[in-house]
Amino acid sequence: MQMIYSAQEMNRTIQQLKEKGQTIGFVPTMGYLHEGHQSLIRHAKAMCDIVVLSIFVNPAQFGPNEDFETYPRDIKRDKIIAEKEGVNIVFNPNVDEMYPLGESMLVTVKDRVDVLCGSSRPGHFDGVATILVKLFNIVMPDKVFFGLKDAQQVAVVDSMIKNFHYPIQLVPCQTIREKDGLAKSSRNIRLSSDERKEAVHLYQGLKEGLLLVNKGERSAAHIKSQVTLYLETHLRLGKIDYVEVLGYPDLQSKELLNGRFIIACAVQYEHARLIDNIVANVNNKLEGEPYAANINEK
Ligand code: AMP
């Protein structure tokens, strides 16, 4: 496994691989790897010749009062996991390498960001899109792998690829969960043991919503109110940031659900903000989606 720290070397290496006809799968992460990241790597390994994993905690996507400084980092451990998963190249630049001129030029995202984390974290998706433009230009991947755990991010990347004409296929991958249903996240280690026990209710609440849809309920407002009620009843330590039921991937509000939709929530704990969601389709009675290869299918 090759470690690369410079954008120029990364780009040169990719060009050489492409000249040899190799296809490039790219998994962008902020590190502190867990099974969620590992599943993206496995999808990439199955679909591409070369897997590039980036590890970069991107300052531009954190708000002033968010956890950029304290975001968990452990590159030694990450390298061991990446090596074990068969990653070919780890790209691990520092902030000066990725922002040589500081934040003097940023991408502005207007589409799909007026709801969910886009509205509670202003500027977050501008930071995400900015770093992805840089990374896509450097890594020039054929396919990129993103987790549906961050379903709004998947929707924004989908729009970004179309807006900027990137010849890249987006592969959204299923959310990987702990045995009790909590979505795996680098931030879970920040939960106290009582918060950790309580956090199981995020997914339980979302599943209550899905159950209603599977029973034939189509009113987004009703599903939202039932999921909210569930969370209000079961959360004592966490504070609900939002519960939303929207069309997916356009993230438009809908009176009645049809086709693909998302039920999403965010909950603030003392040292960690957790998000979770279920993306499903009213046309197939699904327990969430096992693997959403084409997010635009109706
Ligand atoms: P992060 O390091 O948190 O920025 O995440 C990097 C990538 O891993 C993103 O595409 C995330 O959506 C994905 N990811 C994070 N957690 C999970 C999970 N539990 N299941 C699947 N993918 C995940």
Automatic annotation (TrEMBL):
Domain of life according to the entry: Bacteria
Reaction catalysed by this enzyme: (R)-pantoate + beta-alanine + ATP = (R)-pantothenate + AMP + diphosphate + H(+)
Gene3D superfamilies (UniProt xref): HUPs, Pantoate-beta-alanine ligase, C-terminal domain
Major localisation: cytoplasm
Record-linked Pfam families: Pantoate_ligase
SUPFAM superfamilies: Nucleotidylyl transferase
Function: Catalyzes the condensation of pantoate with beta-alanine in an ATP-dependent reaction via a pantoyl-adenylate intermediate.
Protein name, UniProt field: Pantothenate synthetase
Taxonomic source organism: Scopulibacillus daqui
